[in-house]
Amino acid sequence: MKAREAVPRILDATGWTQKELAKKIGVSQGTISKWMNETQSPNTKQWDGVLDLIRRDGRLTDLAQELEPSASADVVGQVGAGSKIDDFYDDEGGSTQVALPFPAFGEFISFEVLGDSMLPKYEPGEVVVVWKNQRRSTESFIGELCVVRLETGERYLKKLATGSRPGLYRLESFNSSPIVDAAVSWVGEVMATVPAKQVKKIVVAAPAQTKKKGKTGR
User: What is the CATH number of domain 3-67?
Assistant: First the structure.
């Protein structure tokens, strides 16, 4: 998250002015204004001051959670050779996560790559980490490699291209036939790829379920 995104949320949640916020983190109001206009970015010391302020103020709990680095991402499916992504969870409701070898800020999910449909960009065994929630318009992903979910429910790892008319898209692979005129309901923006040799999976146990007591007669 950039300072341009964080600062307005801080101001909205606290009711502070730019001048009040600047005083709390030891910078000038002009500096805050430059951050919001993206004519200047905070240095490490300044950004640490912003993060510390966010963590200490109860009104900014949601923002603090978004800014805390994640060490893992849920693995929610696999990418077959040019085929749809198959979801998988264990029968008890637990999940599998992949450990991230770097700090990542935000909510992410990931997919394991199978087959060679996206070679040479994505190799079998790699894990593709994407943003859980779509952050920008579908149209803006044209020309990018991303995970998409169709309105019919299937999900794919493809390059997004324009379709024959607005609202429809062409899904392209490197080594398989394209899917033409697909209606896309969600796009997972790729944040990172974890090489197969660096993938460390974590099995998360399902929470214990409390057995319901049946009614008894007296």
Answer: 1.10.260
